[in-house]
Design brief:
Helix content is about 70%, strand content about 0%. It is an all-alpha fold and about 200 residues long. Helix 3 packs antiparallel against helix 5 and helix 5 packs across helix 7.
Length: about 200
């Protein structure tokens, strides 16, 4: 949102006309993907389906009924939604990939729907591939990753992107914005290193 300068999804897609945000904002994309797996309760963060939780959770309560099917359908719909958001925010949305977008009619007619669906299917296939590849983490590892790594890195990255955007938009405050952003990033890293050793 900071880099595109708007909250409109169509404007965010239009802001990716030259370069997709997955290339410009790699840390944001990696953090989003990790959080997408955690929020959708997919491996490696599928703690509700862990062996220790199977003695009394939704897996045993709704094990052979329509309620279980609805719960699983809701989890997959959550994954579909997260994939659609990833395509919109980071992968250019309905726009054609760069070599194909040089063709004049690549983003007209039914082509945008096809590009979005291809990106969506590839993103969802990546989620399935990760499920088949990675082992499950423990709950304490998930909390440690979230609180000690993802939150500090994300806050530092947001401050860096905000600083870069303010420098790009306002020529007069270039040195002030760079200095404040540098101090905040260095302070955030120092705090993170302090808590990481505890």
């Amino acid at each position: 949102f900071l880099f595109a300068g708007t909250l409109s999804t169509s404007e965010i897609v239009n802001a990716q006309g030259q370069t997709w945000f997955v290339f410009l904002l790699i840390p944001s994309f990696v953090i989003y993907v990790i959080c997408m797996f955690g929020e959708a309760a997919r491996i490696p963060f599928d703690l509700p389906e862990g062996e220790g939780e199977l003695v009394g959770g939704f897996q045993t309560e709704y094990s052979s009924s329509l309620k279980f099917a609805l719960i699983m359908m809701g989890e997959y719909l959550h994954t579909f939604t997260a994939s659609g958001i990833a395509v919109t925010l980071f992968l250019g949305g309905w726009r054609a990939p760069i070599p194909i977008s040089w063709w004049e009619g690549a983003n007209q007619g039914y082509w945008p729907v096809l590009w979005f669906l291809i990106k969506f299917v590839l993103t969802f296939s990546f989620i399935i591939w990760v499920r088949a590849s990675l082992p499950r983490v423990r709950y304490d590892q998930l909390m440690s990753l979230g609180w000690k790594v993802l939150i500090p890195v994300n806050l530092a990255w947001i401050m860096l992107v905000a600083g870069v955007r303010s420098v790009m938009l306002n020529e007069e405050s270039r040195m002030i914005a760079l200095g404040v952003t540098g101090i905040i990033v260095i302070g955030g890293l120092a705090i993170w290193m302090r808590f990481d050793t505890v």
